[in-house]
Amino acid sequence: MTRLSSVPSPSQPTAGGTGIYLDHAATSPVCPAAAEAVVRGMGITGNPSSRHAAGDEAREALESSRAQMAALLDCTPDDVVFTGGGSEADALAICGTVLAAADRPVHVITTAVEHSAVLESCAMAGELGAEVTILRPDSRGWIDPDDVRRALRPHTLLVSVMHANNETGVLQPVADIADIAHEAGALMHTDAVQTAGKVSLAEIGADLVSVSAHKFYGPKGVGALKVAPEVRLAPLIRGGSQERGLRAGTENVAGVLGMAAAASAALHHLDDPEFQEHRHALRAHLLKELEAAGDIAVNGEGAPCLPETLNVSFAGVRGDTLVDMLAVHGICVSAGSACHAGSDEPSHVLTAMGIPAERARSSVRFSPGRTTSVDEVTVAAARTVDVVGKLRALGPADTPQPTHA
Could you tell me how many helices (H) and strands (E) the chain has, helices first? Predict the structure, then answer.
């Protein structure tokens, strides 16, 4: 039996400064090493493109950070392109690939459970003339590699399948899908925003990999894209020749330094067996405590999942109402993706999985982080069970809710 050990409380405050933060899938608090690196970067005066001592200092800091990011992305430093975040990295990977092949018909394959950054980039690819196929997952939210194989066409240029889903945490068989894409002469892109720093990115086989610093305890507004040497990309932001001509504009040196420091810290934790055991035990403990609410369903159950993400539907309760009431008690969770907060539409991810709208609207995402303690999870779960009971006692939600599936 796995023993739950108490991981030390964070040396930095939780996001928001108070309460119990279980919304790391939305964003993570900046770790001390990353914060120190950002401050150090703010003290670097020069432009990395300038040919003088101050420029040399900035350029050396940038290239040192590029090497650190290459270690996270399992590639060479020359393959790393710095971006303004994960969404920009996705857009550059998808639309940049399509633009670079504008001289011929192209076909792009993606899935219905992708983050909106990928789905909107694929929509833009369609506006640029690409044919786009969107595959549906099974009821667990998992993509069958054989579905990708069946969707391939002679002119398939790119397959884009996320490494792990941001709402359910379901891990996709990216390496298997990459093999299928490559056999057909197509490129493979994966949005690894949710897995970078949590799961090794080695041997996933993707030619293009998107990551975002703020998901692995780095600063917001900076990300990176791994671009394999054989990939032809056209820049989306044009101007100077920065980032191998793929992303114009003076690089965010302070942000990049913070991202690189966060990447190095994350890699250290990936190699810590005790911490890896704690990740899985913490999720199991959280689910066990939430089951006391009764009539719940885990969305994505049965598929391989990130232990940091647990998506649960509470029958008879609106997810957004539950989130709001927990926030009053200082507990931070989400009803689906943070990018669509405030929308009354059921999650496109859960809808694609075939989950009825009523159950989808009753879902809440719990995403503990690297510094979350067992005590915090216990308290948050108990408060959730209490609030769910009170909401159910008030009467049915707007629409009838299904029982456990």
Answer: 12, 12
